Known about the structure:
Elements: E1 3-9, E2 21-25, E3 37-38, H1 49-52, H2 55-64, E4 69-74, E5 77-80, H3 101-107, E6 113-116, E7 119-120, H4 126-133, H5 136-149, H6 154-162, E8 165-166, E9 172-175, H7 176-196, H8 209-224, E10 230-237, H9 243-260
Parallel strand pairs: 1-2, 1-4, 2-3, 6-10
Antiparallel strand pairs: 4-9, 5-10, 6-9, 7-8
Helix pairs in contact: 5-7, 6-8, 7-8
Amino acid sequence: MDIKILVATHKKYAMPQEKIYIPLHVGKESKEKLDYQGDNTGDNISIKNANYCELTGLYWAWKNLKCDYIGLCHYRRYFTNKNLFIRVLKKNSKFDLILKKIEIENLFKKYDIILPRKRNYYIETIKSHYEHAHNIRDLEETRKIIEQKYPEYLKSFDAVMKRRTLYLFNMFIMKKEQFDNYCKWVFDILFELEKRIDISHYNNYQKRVFGFLSERLFNVWLEYNCNFIKKQIRVINLEKTNWYNKINDFILRKINFTSKL
Length: 261
């Protein structure tokens, strides 16, 4: 089974040693060069990384990579199928917990797609969360595009927006054929959206708008393709999460960004 899992990165970092993991320098066209495969070869949108985030890596893989199965993780965030009493382990040992090829092959005997466990927002819907953290007009324009170009997806879009749970990080492992179909759909929508919205006044965080929206659109695509047999597994972060800063930043985004719209 030919499996390739992209490890999206923008800086030098310790990487998994198993050959299925491919460190991919996303946004390489406009950044300091690293000794990793870049997303700026062949057919690519590497120059758009500031707005598309890891999607520039997905686009590159869609257009330039051949394999049976493909996945995406991040330089410090990976899938794991092991027990996560990891806080008692040394930092370097966390690499031993990253999902192995044999584990992936076994999972695909039963499942069609591997996904991270959903995040529960509890107190707000996916739509209200986006409205509180970003520009809701971008999400509304995305809905219009779907209504015009992919009306069969509109019911799935509305259903996802009303929920309180979401697959995040754009992380997955699936058949390359499924991946190609997803990329054709999502980039068609995002490229059209890029023509319709003005982000010139956005700060650097909010300019990542197409990356933020793609997380929601990935859930819409999964909702519509409900015949996939999904397997949710844990995600391990190789670095400690500063929850104080994370929550504080989230609250400030709610207050400051929406007040400027």
